[in-house]
C-alpha cells in the first residue's frame, strides 16, 4: 500500500476522514465553509489554535458553528435523498418484477455491488486513503516547493486502477462459480450469472468512486461525495424504466453498471480542481516510504476485516434463502431495506459527532470521550427504537403502501411485512454495533475486539440459521440475524474500557432498557390502531402519532435522558411560538 510520508504516526491518531478545520464565515457554500488546516509545527496531527478552528467539543464561535452545521445539514440532506431514491429503486424493482425468481436472481448478483460499496466506498478503502491524503495535504501546507498530493495520486492511483480492473475481470469470468457459491439452490442460475457479469463492473467503478470520495473528504469537500448515491440510484431507476420491458431483470443489473460509472463522473471534476492547487509535481518515492505505514495499514486491516464480517450477514442470508421457494430472497431484501431506515438515521447522528470523539481521544480527554459515547449510544438507541416501534406496528400498511402494485401481490405484502417484524428485533443491535465500533476505531489504534465480536456474531447467525431455516424458513433467517447482531453488540458494550472508552455501562444499559420498554408499549398501541383500519394511509396516520406520543410519554415517565430533554425543551418552544402568534 502507498501512503504519505511523515515523521511519526500522529496521523493515525486522528479519525479517518477528519482533519482540523478552519471556519470561513464568508464562505458561499457548505463545501467552502470547511477547509483543511495545514499542520502546525507540532506535527501532522497538531491541533490548530483556538482562533483558527472550531472546537468540536464545545459551542465554538457562533458564526463558525453555524457554517459547519450548514455543511453537515447539506450532507445529511443529500444522504437522505439518496436513501429515498434507493427506496424508489426498490419500488421500481417490485413493480416490474415482484418478488419472484427473477428478482432473486438479480439480488444474488447485487451482492457484488453491496460488498464493493462497503469495502471500496464506505469503510475499507476510505480508512486507508483519507489518512494518506491528509498527511500529503499537511506536507503541501509546509510549502516545500512540490506537491505531495499529486505525487500520492501518481504513486497510488495507477496501481489501484489495475487492481480494480483485475478484480472486475475475475468476477465477470468467475460469475458461474460466484453464483453457485452464493446461492447454490437458486432455480435460474443462468439469469443470475448474466446479472453478475454486469454488476462485476462495480469492482472497478466503485473503486474509483471510493478513491475520489476519500480524496475529496481529505480536502474537506463533503457535498460532492454525498451525491454519489443520488446519482447511482437515479441511474438504476432510469435504466429500469427504459429497458425493463426489453431486457427483463437484466436491466436492473445494467443500471447498477451505469450508476457506478456515473459515481466516478460526478466526482472527477471536483477532484481535478483540488489537485490543481498544488505547486509542482512532487516525488512519489518519498511518499512510499513513510515510517508509520505499517501501523496505519494494520489499523486499516482491522477495519477491513470488521466490514467484511459485518457484510457477510447478507451472504449467509442469501445462501440459506436460496434453498427456499422463489421469492424468499426478495422478501428478505425488501424487509431489510425498509426496516434499516431508522438505523441509517440513527447512525447518521453518530457520524456527525464522530469528529468530536476522535479529537477527544487524540487529546487524551477521557471524560469528554466517555460522555460523548454515552450520549451517542443513548440518542442513537432512542431514534432507532422509535423507528423500530413504528416499523413493527405499521409493517403491513407500510409494505402495502410502498410496494403492492404491479407484480408485487398482496401475498408478497403479507410475507414481507411478517419478515420485517422479525428482522426489526435486531435493529437496536445493528445500531449499537455501528455506534460502538466507531468508539473502538476513533483512537487510531490497532484493536481486534470489533472483529472478534463480529466474528462470534456471524458464527451465531450462521449456526442458528442452519438449524432454523428448515422449520421456520425466512423467519428463522431473520431471527438468526437479529440474535447474532445483538450478541455482537453485547460483546462490544462489555469490551468498552480503559483501552477504548471507559463508559459507565450500568448507566447506559439502564437508559436503553427504559427505551426498550417505551418502544414495546408504543408498538402494542400502534399495532392496535393500525389493525383497526384497512386502508394503508389512514392506518399509518393513526399508527404513527400513536407510536410517537406513547414512546415519548413512557420514556419521559421513566426519566430517559434524551426524552426528558426533548419534553423539557418543548414547553419554552411552544411559549415562544405562542408569543409570536399573539404579536
Question: What report would you give on this structure?
Answer:
By secondary structure, the chain is mostly helical. It is built from 25 helices and two strands. A two-stranded antiparallel ribbon has the order 1-2. It is globular. It starts with 9 loop residues before the first helix and ends with a helix. The model is unreliable at 1-65 and 280-295 (pLDDT under 50).
* Number of discrete helical segments: 25
Strand percent estimate: under 5%
Poorly predicted tracts of residues: 1-65, 280-295
Q: Using DSSP, what is the number of strands?
A: 2
Report on the biggest sheet: 2 strands, antiparallel
Radius of gyration: 24 Å
| SSE-based structural type | mainly alpha
Straight-line N-to-C gap: 65 Å
- Main sheet strand line-up: 1-2
Helix % is over 70%
Order of helices and strands: HEHEHHHHHHHHHHHHHHHHHHHHHHH
Mean pLDDT: 76
Question: What would the principal axes of the Cα set say about the shape?
Answer: globular
Please render the helix and strand layout as text:
Blueprint: H1 10-13, E1 21-23, H2 30-33, E2 34-36, H3 62-97, H4 101-109, H5 111-122, H6 124-141, H7 148-173, H8 175-182, H9 189-199, H10 202-218, H11 223-226, H12 228-247, H13 250-275, H14 284-287, H15 293-321, H16 328-362, H17 366-393, H18 395-403, H19 410-423, H20 427-441, H21 449-472, H22 474-494, H23 505-531, H24 536-557, H25 561-582
Antiparallel strand pairs: 1-2
Helix pairs in contact: 3-12, 3-16, 4-9, 4-16, 5-10, 5-15, 6-10, 6-15, 7-10, 8-9, 9-13, 10-13, 12-13, 15-21, 15-22, 16-17, 16-19, 16-20, 17-20, 17-23, 17-24, 18-19, 18-24, 19-22, 20-22, 21-22, 23-24, 24-25
Amino acid at each position: 500500500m502507498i501512503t504519505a510520508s511523515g515523521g511519526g504516526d500522529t496521523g493515525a491518531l486522528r479519525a479517518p476522514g477528519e482533519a482540523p478545520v478552519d471556519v470561513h464565515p464568508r464562505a458561499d457554500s457548505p463545501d467552502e465553509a470547511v477547509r483543511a488546516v495545514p499542520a502546525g509545527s507540532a506535527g501532522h496531527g497538531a491541533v490548530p489554535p483556538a482562533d483558527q478552528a472550531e472546537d468540536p467539543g464545545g459551542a465554538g464561535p457562533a458564526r463558525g458553528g453555524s457554517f459547519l452545521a450548514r455543511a453537515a445539514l447539506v450532507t445529511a440532506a443529500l444522504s437522505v435523498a439518496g436513501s429515498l431514491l434507493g427506496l424508489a429503486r426498490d419500488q421500481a424493482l417490485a413493480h416490474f418484477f415482484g418478488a419472484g425468481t427473477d428478482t432473486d436472481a438479480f439480488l444474488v448478483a447485487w451482492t457484488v455491488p453491496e460488498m464493493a460499496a462497503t469495502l471500496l466506498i464506505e469503510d475499507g478503502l476510505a480508512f486507508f486513503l483519507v489518512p494518506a491524503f491528509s498527511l500529503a495535504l499537511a506536507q503541501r501546507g509546509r510549502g516545500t516547493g512540490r506537491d505531495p498530493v499529486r505525487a500520492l495520486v501518481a504513486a497510488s492511483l495507477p496501481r489501484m486502477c489495475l487492481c480494480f480492473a483485475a478484480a472486475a475481470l475475475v468476477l465477470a469470468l468467475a460469475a458461474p462459480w460466484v453464483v453457485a457459491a452464493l446461492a447454490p439452490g437458486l432455480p435460474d442460475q443462468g439469469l443470475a450469472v448474466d446479472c453478475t457479469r454486469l454488476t462485476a463492473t462495480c469492482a472497478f467503478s466503485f473503486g474509483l468512486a471510493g478513491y475520489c470520495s476519500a480524496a475529496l473528504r481529505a480536502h474537506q469537500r463533503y457535498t460532492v461525495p454525498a451525491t454519489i448515491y443520488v446519482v447511482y440510484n437515479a441511474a438504476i431507476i432510469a435504466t429500469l424504466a427504459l429497458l425493463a420491458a426489453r431486457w427483463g431483470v437484466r436491466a436492473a443489473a445494467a443500471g447498477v453498471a451505469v450508476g457506478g460509472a456515473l459515481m466516478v463522473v460526478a466526482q472527477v471534476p471536483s477532484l481535478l480542481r483540488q489537485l490543481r492547487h498544488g505547486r509542482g509535481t512532487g516525488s512519489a518515492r518519498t511518499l512510499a516510504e513513510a515510517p508509520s505505514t505499517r501501523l496505519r495499514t494494520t489499523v486499516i486491516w482491522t477495519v477491513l476485516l470488521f466490514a467484511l464480517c459485518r457484510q457477510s450477514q447478507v451472504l449467509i442470508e442469501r445462501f440459506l434463502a436460496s434453498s427456499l421457494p422463489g421469492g424468499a430472497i426478495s422478501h428478505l431484501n425488501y424487509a431489510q431495506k425498509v426496516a434499516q431506515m431508522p438505523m441509517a438515521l440513527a447512525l447518521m447522528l453518530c457520524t456527525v459527532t464522530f469528529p468530536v470523539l476522535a479529537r477527544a481521544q487524540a487529546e487524551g480527554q477521557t471524560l469528554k470521550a466517555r460522555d460523548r459515547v454515552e450520549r451517542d449510544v443513548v440518542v442513537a438507541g432512542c431514534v432507532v427504537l422509535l423507528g423500530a416501534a413504528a416499523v413493527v406496528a405499521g409493517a403491513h400498511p407500510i409494505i402495502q403502501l410502498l410496494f403492492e402494485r404491479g407484480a408485487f401481490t398482496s401475498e408478497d405484502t403479507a410475507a414481507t411485512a411478517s419478515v420485517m417484524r422479525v428482522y426489526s428485533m435486531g435493529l437496536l443491535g445493528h445500531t449499537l454495533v455501528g455506534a460502538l465500533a466507531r468508539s473502538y476505531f476513533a483512537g487510531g489504534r490497532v484493536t481486534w475486539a470489533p472483529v472478534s465480536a463480529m466474528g462470534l456474531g456471524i458464527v451465531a447467525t450462521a449456526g442458528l440459521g442452519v438449524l432454523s431455516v428448515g422449520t421456520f424458513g425466512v423467519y428463522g433467517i431473520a431471527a438468526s440475524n437479529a440474535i447474532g447482531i445483538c450478541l455482537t453488540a453485547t460483546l462490544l458494550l462489555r469490551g468498552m474500557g480503559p483501552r477504548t472508552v471507559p463508559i459507565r455501562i450500568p448507566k447506559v444499559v439502564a437508559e436503553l432498557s427504559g427505551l426498550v420498554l417505551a418502544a414495546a408499549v408504543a408498538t402494542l398501541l400502534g399495532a392496535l390502531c393500525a389493525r383497526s383500519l384497512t386502508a394503508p394511509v389512514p392506518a399509518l396516520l393513526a399508527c404513527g402519532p400513536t407510536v410517537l406520543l406513547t414512546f415519548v410519554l413512557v420514556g419521559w415517565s421513566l426519566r430517559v435522558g434524551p426524552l426528558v430533554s426533548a419534553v423539557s425543551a418543548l414547553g419554552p418552544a411552544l411559549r415562544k411560538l405562542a408569543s409570536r402568534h399573539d404579536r
